[in-house]
Amino acid sequence: MKHVLVIGAGPAGLSAAVAARDAGARVTILDSGDGLGGQYWRHLPPQRPSGRESRLHHGWSAFVRLRGRLHDDAIEVVTEAQVWAIEQAEDESGTAPVRVHLLIGPADAGKREARTLTADALVLATGAHDRTLPFPGWHLSGVFTAGAAQALAKGERIAVGRRVVVAGAGPFLLPVAQSLTAAGAHVVGVYEAARTAALAKGWLPRPWRLLAASHKGPELAGYVTHHLARRIPYRLGRAVVEARGDGRVEAVVTARLDANWAPIPGTERTVAADAVCVSHGFTPRLELPIAAGCAIGPDRFVEVDAEQRTSVPNVWAAGEITGIGGVDAALVEGRVAGRSAAGREADPADLRRRRGTTDFARRIEAAHGIRPGWTSWLREDTVVCRCEEVPYGRLRDTAAATDQTSVRSVKLTTRAGLGICQARMCGRTVEDLTGAGAARAEDTTDRRPLAAPIRLGDLAGLATTLGKDPHV
After folding, report:
1. How many helices (H) and strands (E) does the chain have?
2. Range 414-432 burial, b when 16+ CB lie within 10 A, else e
3. Residue 274 pLDDT exceeds 80
4. Residue 459 neighbours by CB distance under 10 Å
5. Could you point out which of 114, 170, 278, 347 has its C-alpha 20 to 30 Å from the C-alpha of 471?
6. Domains delineated in the chain
7. What backbone phi and psi angles, to 5 degrees, belong to 273?
8. Nearest one of 193, 163, 325, 160 to 263, comparing CA atoms
């Protein structure tokens, strides 16, 4: 029986696992969280269940169905599993099974259980996290990524503030505002950076292609109804360009943006708030695909073929690491990848659905994608790397003075990206502001010698065969 290893238990990972099992494979699912569902189905812990948790999630019935399918002797689920290295080692038969090294246990704990798993096929479904563009004051207490705010609202029923501003770009702002109000917050406004012209350019061409996503109409109507019922202002072409306060957020400054996302002088407005939740789209979690050797395209997503195969033999990818297309794209890509990884051809109906979700992802980028004018709202003292407290002026001047173009050199000379998050929050921004990494496609802040932070003591105690990778 073929063994398929799935990393990630969000929509794409769960869908891939079930599809692989249906195709006759033995399946192992790994996830770094303490439960299933990923960021999309981030539900309440079993100690504090809700009698009507379905009201907190879209597609909850799909999650319940997928979760129920995991009760199978041929499926192993391992949570709190931190994968830190991937390799391929040729065996006696001449094939190249995938070998995955992981530590099991809470992320901040010592002496975690070490395991090495070998599988015939690997499906990567590691998802994405918020990308937040820096602005003056974004290091203050009370500034959250929109994903973190939603996770607290869904997973803990905690509102991040009493008067909350939601800002950034993309459809994700709407469910975040809804989750915050459900948790008891007063959302004083939602500010979408994209202007009307950009939204029209992204969403209106070839409208018949949107029929593939017609089921999202009721979901959108629900958000609109929610906003109207609670009188939440929704402003297009406007962004939070500053957060103010003495140690924590007390107010935010918003401004109208031009088509390039540069603030228009004289349009600033101050809004009283004790929290601001910001998301300017998503950054795919590429550490493991890069560790596996997968080719990354110029758009910074994993390159896959029609059946979700990557450039590496026996490795597939699905979900947000192949393009930000939402839950529907993740589910169908997971099914395609799971069947293919198990040695079966994909369902033609799923391949057709996949083409439709790919179009939806392109529209999101065209309508809400980041424009370069945002850098004009930065000041000299605006913190870019919050872990190392590196301000914009020093980052720019140091990078220019040393005339370095590699990401590694810029990180070492400026310290931006060397903190505890290892550039997960600021990496793309550092690249944009300095031009670092532009000379070589493989030179990015997503490339790390170890795919996840682990204690030196744990690393020293491991007996591994990591091959001859010069980066390890």
Report:
1. 13, 20
2. bbbbebeebbbbbbbbbbb
3. yes
4. 13
5. 114
6. 3-128+283-346 (3.50.50.60), 132-280 (3.50.50.60), 378-434 (no CATH)
7. -160, 150
8. 193
| Cβ–Cβ < 8 Å for 223, 175 | yes
Query: How do beta strands 121-124 and 128-130 pair?
Result: unpaired
- Alpha carbons 140 and 332: distance in angstroms, whole number: 40
Please name every residue paired with 252 in a beta bridge, in sequence order, or none if there are none.
243, 271
> Is the predicted pLDDT of residue 215 greater than 70, yes or no?
no
- How much is the mean pLDDT over the chain? 88
**Residue 307 three-state SS:** coil
Q: Which residues pair with 6 in a beta bridge?
A: 29, 123
Give one DSSP letter per residue of 218-251, joined into a string: HHHHHHHHHHHHHT--EEESEEEEEEE-SSB-SE
Q: Are 268 and 227 within 8 A, CB to CB?
A: no
pTM: 0.89
Mean pLDDT of 23-29: 96
Task: Categorize the per-residue pLDDT at 154 as very low, low, confident or very high, splitting at 50, 70 and 90.
Answer: confident
Residue with tokens 């939402």: 326
From residue 324, alpha-carbon distances to 48, 89, 119 in Å are: 31, 32, 27
pLDDT of residue 468: 40
